[in-house]
Write a sequence for this structure.
């Protein structure tokens, strides 16, 4: 009888652990005051990322957020996680992370950060990270045609210049694959 009770207690305990883990997973996926998940960013007059940021009180950077979010997600299948300020929404830095799937290109992780109240109003920077099943030399020649190399960042990462404050970092993953990180600062 005691052995049965012990097993039952363990099973109940395990069931509780599973139920607790499931509840935590659901809670982690739920929106909070500071994190909002957008499962599918659909096209519209204003990008859904900008719309949700505006609804959260982020007004100073609304135009810049719409500009960058449209640039990163227009014509794609994308989902995003918004990082909203806890207080003073219109005077705080905000950020968004997105999964971006564009036809004919590898899926990308994109991140953008927006800072209000700068000399220009709202400064921003974005990065996209992609894994390519081609060597870095092929990726540079095929997808960043005409972008001059600016030398290495260190010992392993190459740099291409694609604009005054925009760079592509090329990092060899294997002899036949490459990771690119594209970064631009908008002032």
């Amino acid at each position: 009888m005691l052995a049965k009770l012990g097993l039952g207690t363990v099973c109940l305990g395990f069931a509780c652990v599973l139920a607790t883990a499931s509840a935590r997973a659901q809670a982690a996926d739920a929106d909070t005051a500071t994190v909002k998940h957008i499962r599918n960013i659909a096209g519209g007059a204003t990008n859904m990322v900008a719309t949700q940021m505006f609804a959260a009180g982020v007004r100073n950077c609304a135009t810049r957020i719409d500009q960058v979010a449209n640039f990163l997600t227009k014509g794609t299948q994308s989902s995003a996680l918004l990082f909203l300020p806890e207080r003073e929404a219109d005077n705080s830095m905000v950020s968004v992370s997105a999964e971006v799937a564009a036809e004919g290109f590898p899926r990308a992780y994109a991140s953008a950060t927006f800072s209000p109240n700068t000399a220009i109003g709202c400064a921003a920077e974005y990065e996209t990270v992609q894994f390519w099943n081609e060597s870095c030399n092929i990726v540079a020649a095929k997808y960043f045609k005409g972008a001059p190399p600016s030398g290495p960042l260190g010992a392993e990462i190459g740099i291409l210049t694609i604009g005054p404050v925009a760079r592509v970092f090329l990092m060899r993953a294997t002899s036949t694959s490459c990771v690119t990180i594209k970064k631009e600062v908008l002032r």
